[in-house]
Each structure stands twice: as structure tokens, then as C-alpha cells.
């Protein structure tokens, strides 16, 4: 199957008062047509920056894509005009932002907000746009009679449904969902995720789902990319990552969630904090928190190893355990 999205060697930087921050560092990631990839990592790992880069929403100053390519259906999005990019946004690629409260215009009815998107992207009459707006509201489980209501008249979960309706209004091929349930009550989270899943099945939309919740990934994705300090440090199928994770950070993520079949007195968080992006450690960026760190980890950046089934891992320990040192010592 063809890749709908292919990110190659992407570097995104922010120039801040504290110095240059490499928010995304040499990221490679691909997504097959119709598939869902979960992008997992702690706050500050660079997930949102990566997502915004795909839609070219990184604003200068302070941020910019320094190098690399983002291919959407073979077209390099980093090399096209803003005019072309505008046509792709919404029509082909849509994004659900984290906070539905800030994603909606408070002084415009939700019906108008949805139909405007449809009218702009599909160049249809206002009557046709209104018709489609109503069917989108129905699809996300909102009574179309509420189209004349304003965002403040909706609950958080309903607002997020409206945001999803806007994101899907033009039947995008690719949906980038950035923590779509973070701002919602636990009771509403499952409903919203079910909604995205159902819509994917109905419309065949590919999904890049950004989250810090491995449970959400398990229920919604076929592939998992683990991001740490701006890099994808492990990638693989859902089964591989859940059954055979190789990177110590991934191991730490799994250890930090409660397991149904084990009595839990205390959760085991990953010790330490994500490093300051303006002052990253030498060598492996995870080494200050890694219980397996050796001398080499402190100075040499590990290379990415690709296993036969597409599972990749970036760790010196994997090289050592599999006798892959020769030619793979990493670099400073
Ligand atoms: Fe730990 Fe070393 Fe692997 Fe980094 S390279 S994750 S410090 S073992």
C-alpha cells in the first residue's frame, strides 16, 4: 500500500531568548493510506510541532522548518507555495487541535463555522454548504437544529464534536488529531475517540493521533511512534511496540501505567524530567534518565536500527545486545 505521508529528515527549530531549540530533530515517519499511527511522548517531546509542521503551521518568528521534506501523496509540502498549501489544508489534510474551547469562534454560530469551511473548500452554494453542514452535525451526533447555537451553549465534549465536524467537513484523506480528548471529561473521551474511529471506517481517512496515553493508542492505532526530545526513538506496529518494545524510554512508559492483572501499590514513573530543549544532553538525550546508560551513551548519539518488520529503535543497548557495534557506534 502507498504512503499517504512521508516525513524525511525533518528538522524544526525555534529561536528563543534562551537559545535555539531543536523541537524536531531529524524525524523520519511514514503513514500508509488508511492506517492510523499513534505519536506518543511526554509534554515537550515535539509532537505538536511535528503535527503543525505537516500542515505548515509553524510560524516564524520564532519557529521554522530548517530542513527535510514532508511528502503528502508524493508532493513535497515544504516546497509548494502558500496558495497551494491552503488548498491542501482542510481539503486533503485536517487537524483537530488540543483545546476545543479555543479552536472555535465564540461569536459565530457553530452551523456557520462548519458551513463556511465547506463553502471555502468545496466551492459550493450556501444552500449546499448548509445541507452538508447539517449532515456533518448528524454524523458527529449533534442535532442539526442546534446549528444556530453558539459555542458557549455547548459542553466541552460537544464543542470537540463540532471541531471534529469542521476537521472532517471536506472529507480529508489525512486527519492529524493533537490530543483530541485531553481537554475533555473522562466520560466524554471514549465517545470522541469512538466517533473518530467510526468516521475513519466510514470515510477511509488516515490518522496521525498524538497522545501521551498508550491506552488510547492501543484502541485506535495500528502503528506507534515514540517521540522523545524531538526524535522518534522507537517505531513499530502496535503489536511489536506492546509486545516487544526495545527502547528503555518505551519500557518506562509501559511501566508507568497500571496493569489490570497486577496489584499496584505504587506506579513506577520514569525518573527525572524531559531535558531542557535549549540545553540538551550530549550523546543519547535520554541518558540522564536511563537505568541502562553506559559510558558510550553519555557521548555518542545512537543510530537508528531497523529490524526486518519495520520496527526501528535508536539505542546503544540494542546494538550491544545484538552484537551490532561494528559500524554502528553512533556519533558525537
Ligand atoms: Fe539508555 Fe544508552 Fe539506550 Fe540511551 S542509548 S536509551 S542511555 S541504553
TrEMBL record:
Pfam families: ABC_tran, oligo_HPY. It is a peripheral membrane protein. The lineage of its organism: Bacteria, Bacillati, Bacillota, Clostridia, Peptostreptococcales. Belongs to the ABC transporter superfamily. It is found in: Cell membrane. Keywords: ATP-binding, Cell membrane, Membrane, Nucleotide-binding, Transport. This is ABC transporter ATP-binding protein. Its main location: membrane. One of its GO terms (cellular component) is plasma membrane. Residues 5-254 form the ABC transporter domain. It comes from the Bacteria. GO terms for biological process: peptide transport. GO terms for molecular function: ATP binding; ATP hydrolysis activity.
Amino acid at each position: 500500500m502507498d504512503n499517504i505521508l512521508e516525513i524525511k529528515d525533518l528538522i524544526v527549530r525555534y529561536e528563543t531568548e534562551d537559545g535555539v531549540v531543536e523541537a524536531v530533530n531529524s524525524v523520519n515517519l511514514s503513514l500508509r493510506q488508511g492506517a492510523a499511527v499513534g505519536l506518543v511522548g511526554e509534554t515537550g517531546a515535539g509532537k505538536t510541532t511535528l503535527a503543525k509542521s505537516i500542515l505548515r503551521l509553524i510560524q516564524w518568528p520564532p519557529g521554522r522548518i530548517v530542513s527535510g521534506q514532508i511528502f503528502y501523496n508524493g508532493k513535497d509540502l515544504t516546497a509548494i507555495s502558500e496558495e497551494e498549501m491552503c488548498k491542501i489544508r482542510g481539503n486533503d489534510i485536517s487537524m483537530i487541535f488540543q483545546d476545543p474551547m479555543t479552536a472555535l469562534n465564540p461569536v459565530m454560530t457553530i452551523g456557520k463555522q462548519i458551513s463556511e469551511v465547506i463553502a471555502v473548500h468545496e466551492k459550493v452554494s450556501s444552500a449546499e454548504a448548509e445541507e452538508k453542514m447539517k449532515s456533518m452535525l448528524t454524523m458527529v451526533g449533534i442535532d442539526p437544529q442546534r446549528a444556530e447555537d453558539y459555542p458557549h451553549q455547548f459542553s466541552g465534549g460537544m464543542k470537540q464534536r463540532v471541531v471534529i465536524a469542521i476537521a472532517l467537513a471536506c472529507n480529508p484523506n489525512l486527519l492529524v488529531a493533537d490530543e483530541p480528548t485531553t481537554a475533555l471529561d473522562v466520560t466524554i473521551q471514549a465517545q470522541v475517540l469512538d466517533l473518530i474511529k467510526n468516521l475513519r471506517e466510514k470515510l477511509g481517512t488516515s490518522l496521525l493521533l498524538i497522545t501521551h496515553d498508550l491506552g488510547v493508542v492501543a484502541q485506535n492505532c495500528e502503528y506507534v511512534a515514540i517521540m522523545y526530545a524531538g526524535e522518534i526513538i522507537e517505531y513499530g506496529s502496535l503489536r511489536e511496540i506492546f509486545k516487544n518494545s526495545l527502547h528503555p524510554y518505551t519500557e518506562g512508559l509501559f511501566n508507568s501505567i497500571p496493569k489490570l492483572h497486577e496489584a499496584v501499590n505504587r506506579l513506577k514513573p520514569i525518573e527525572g524530567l524531559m531535558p531542557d530543549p535549549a540545553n540538551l544532553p550530549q550523546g543519547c538525550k535520554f541518558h540522564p534518565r536511563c537505568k541502562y546508560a553506559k559510558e558510550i551513551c553519555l557521548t555518542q548519539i545512537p543510530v537508528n536500527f531497523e529490524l526486518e518488520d519495520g520496527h526501528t529503535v535508536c539505542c546503544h543497548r540494542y546494538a550491544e545486545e545484538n552484537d551490532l557495534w561494528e559500524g554502528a557506534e553512533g556519533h558525537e
